[in-house]
Amino acid sequence: MPFESLGDKLQSAFKDLRGKGKLSESDIDGALREVRRALLEADVNFKVAKDFIAHVREKAMGEEVFGSLKPDQTVIKIVRDELTELLGGTQSKITLSSTGMTVIMLVGLQGAGKTTTAGKLALMFKKKGHRPLLAACDVYRPAAIKQLEVLGQQTDVPVYRMPPNVDPVHIASYAVDTARSYNRDIVILDTAGRLTIDEKLMAELRNIKAEVHPQEILLVLDSMTGQDAVTTAKAFDENLGIDGTILTKMDGDARGGAALSIKTVTGKPIKMIGVSEKLDGGLEDFHPDRMAGRILDLGDLETLIETAQRNMDAESLKDAAGKIRKGEFTLDDFLRQLKQVRKLGSFQSILGMLPGMGKFKDQLKDIDLDGKEVKHIEAIILSMTPAERTNVKILNGSRRKRIANGAGVKIQDVNRMMKQFAEMQKTMKKMRGKKMNPSKLGNLS
Ligand code: GDP
Hints:
57% helix; Four Helix Bundle (Hemerythrin (Met), subunit A); 445 residues; Rossmann fold; 3 domains; binds guanosine-5'-diphosphate; 434 Repressor (Amino-terminal Domain); alpha/beta
């Protein structure tokens, strides 16, 4: 997960401030030194990090912090606001033409995720009721045309293609004409990429731009490449002029430097982020404020709720929440929720969206929701009797052995799962005791 290590370091920078009734200038400077180090280690551009600290310091030294009742919270709030600014301030969406047709031109280096993103965008717009058309303008890599055709089949979106000897500028132009004739309202151009930026590529892209006047030229960038992504963005913007960026592979272990520097360095917003290889759900709107909350482990319940609304069964969620509140959450409920939760994406990404859940990361890291582990958990639970699922306390050693045999796993697997479930119940109990209000946790102001 990107930002994971940055998030950990930022939280530890604020640890010493916690619980202090009054903060001194040197307390704040000490914390900010750690924040600065954390940003640089996350591969944030040097100047961006320096300015960031200067802004936070200026605000923190004001009356705001010294006069507040919980100065540590106020400092975190200032950092959150400043991080939000760094990530672009307010959300910047892909703009669609309100009258005619929208042409979206995707550009970027080879391997950044352009073609995949074209497929994801097509599906996203289709789900919103649009009639997209994909156009294969990368004629240099024959596999790219094939790849787009496969994506077209998977998403049931038509793909416009021509033989590889046709000039990509013509392909783009014909694609737009064809879209018009077939009453398509969005054309997504997948253009050629190179391993490095070269003048021939830029000239071709400028020609396509001059020919079809795209509403949106979006630069697809691999977030894993860190500051190289920022350099690429600068070059594309200077040579072609871009409207925004799409940062892919945000589900990987990128340190976050690209996301945090791009807006400041290029002045162009991040419009979307790629969060998995999957076509469906693999692309999200980018909300700077929510991302800042995620980095600081203040959670991002809005995104989680939106994703859940799209993918999950609301009744079952409500039912589970009620059971957690009453302390009646059983292994059967656990299994049901596990199946639901799998629809949301990777487990680590879900944890990242829950306020305060960062600290359970290590405890829960062994759960591989996408693989074997879940199948084992399922088999273990299904091998139990209904009474056992309701009350795990009745499971003694010999019953566990029998369950392991029935599920085709080792007894250690059964024990480990029981331990995880017990930990979870303990956490739920604590949460009930504290009368935690998650909606408040995400909002410090
Ligand atoms: P292109 O050369 O720019 O068209 O790049 P591709 O679309 O072929 O993508 C290159 C690789 O990155 C492929 O293996 C994609 O599956 C992968 N990819 C693209 N976007 C994402 C993403 O958001 N997350 C992950 N994990 N992989 C991605």
